[in-house]
Amino acid sequence: MIEVKNLSKHFVIKKRKPGILGSISSLFYSEKETLKAVDNVSFEIAAGELVGYIGQNGAGKSTTIKMLTGILTPTSGIVKINGISPHEDREKNAHQIGVVFGQRSQLWQDLPVEESFDLLRSIYKIEQKKYDVKLEFFFDLLGLKDFFHQQARKLSLGQRMKADLAASLLHSPSILYLDEPTIGLDLLVKEKVREFIREINKTEKVTIILTTHDIQDIEFLASRIIIIEKGIKAYDGNIKNFNKLLGNDSVLNIQFVEKVKTLTLPKPFIVKEKISDWQYIVKAPEKEPLSKLIQVLQKKGIDIQEINREKPDLGEAVKKMYAKEGKI
């Protein structure tokens, strides 16, 4: 569905010295610097996949999305979306993709949402019956009916994001690019948007690339992540493998009946953190049965009140990777 091979986008930036003299001298001569926003990135995404594309600010996420949509022309490399080169055939590519930029809206601000949608229906030449079915789908999953007749500029951030999501999917695209779709939203609206994204991926088989700084978005929606750091692909694979790669296994949260001032355990169990004399966080490989640990503790005369296995924190794993400057 999406093929990216040795993709690069470099920007030439002119350096200017400060002050009036600097401005005058720059008219005749100025130093130039090449900024490698995206540098030799390759990946493939199959139909129906939902992939998290993450990285720090300035890592190259949005630049990649803009090349995939055809907004930017690559400096070098190959991009194919369903066999189409986005920047060479933008109109044909536009009919097969939907795009949501969290900080920009595709609605006409002075028009009601209903009229913006009607304009999009005309632009994409959507049949009225199909359009009506789509609207009912959005009314049901997003609650769009509650603000469908309101002016776009009068919508709350959450309402605007829901309307933008629906607008990007009116023409039934096979691919959806989401750039920070939950930025600034409250918890309830975030949950609604996440559920909607998951639903269209599951029922409509829409291929989705999601860029976000909210790790919870990724954990809730994606099983595969691509991490880009300073324009270079640092990781591409399963979230579970990424956690294991950085030693970020699941942990056991154990609460005891009585005080345990010091807890010593045999390998592979390791005490990661002491919360209190009654509670410890223990690092344990997922393959290790809990019964083995319980037996060890019972032999020591330690009674367990409650024990829970907590999944690895993806956010912590990403922080570890950044601390290592992308050297995995």
Structure commentary:
- The protein has 328 residues and is an alpha/beta fold.
- It folds into 2 domains: 47-244, P-loop containing nucleotide triphosphate hydrolases (Rossmann fold); 250-311.
- The protein contains 11 helices and 13 strands.
- A 6-stranded mixed beta sheet has the order 5-6-7-3-8-9, with helices on both faces. It has a 4-stranded antiparallel beta sheet with strand order 11-12-10-13, with helices on one face. It has a 3-stranded antiparallel beta sheet with strand order 2-1-4.
- Strand 8 and strand 9 (232-238) form a beta hairpin.
- The longest helix is centred in the middle third of the chain and has 17 residues, at 187-203.
- Global structural class: alpha/beta
Query: How would you name the CATH homologous superfamily of the largest domain?
Result: P-loop containing nucleotide triphosphate hydrolases
Please state how the strands of the largest beta sheet are arranged side by side: 5-6-7-3-8-9
Written as H for each helix and E for each strand, in order along the chain, the element string is: EHEEHEHEHHHEHEHEEHEEEHEH
Q: Count all strands and give the number.
A: 13
- Report the radius of gyration as a whole number of Å: 25 Å
- Name of the CATH first level of the largest domain: Alpha Beta
Apparent shape: globular
Short description:
The chain has eleven helices and 13 strands. By secondary structure, the chain is α/β, with parallel strands linked by helices. The longest helix is centred in the middle third of the chain and has 17 residues, at 187-203.
